[in-house]
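lol ok so funny story. i was supposed to be doing the assay writeup but got distracted and ended up predicting the structure for this chain instead. priorities right. anyway since i did it might as well share w the group, maybe its usefull for someone
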Amino acid sequence: MARGTAESSHGLSYKATEQAIGRWREGVDLEDLVKLIESEKSDDRIAGAYYLNEVSKDFVILKIAAIKLSRDALSTCRRAFVLYITTSGYYDEELAELLVKCLLDLDLYVRVSTIKWAMSSSQEVFLDFSKRVESGTGRPGPKFSNPLSNDFWNSSNRNRALRGIEIARRFRLGEEIGVIRKSVIGEDSFIFDSIEFSNTTRERYARWKK
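and the output, tada:
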């Protein structure tokens, strides 16, 4: 990728892409990556989201760009935000609020990525995040003129947020996903399948290579 440009990833050869990622990992030409992430073209933003997680470095300029992805209409971009926060280790009040929104995301890939982040975060971060979730931080505001309708969805979002935290907390305490699955009522089976799939990757690989 030429310096100072934000060409679509579709025009890059494999070698050029690898070279660009290598430079970005060194903190060079990060403006090019940011331009992809901030592009008005959805294909460019998706490419930028992918490259962001290939780079996975804790550069402030990338943190700012990742925050913009968290508000993107494309769920692929919102998930990339969560994955970047997971690998970079960034955490602050603004990120916590955005992560609560991702925990409540209607896209299950975004939601489960946030639960996995909570499962792997430090104890200090997890306790802070849990308190924020339990207090209602980051939940959607009123949408209806009828307050009873708002109460209905407030309750739904609260329960959904608490289920996500419960799954992460119990996993951190050493419970098997199969056990958690049976007792956390109302959670989509895909969430548990995705977590179990991630946790058994090495086991499946070892069986395959026997």
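The radius of gyration is 19 Å. The CA atoms of residues 46 and 73 lie 11 Å apart.
back to the writeup now i swear
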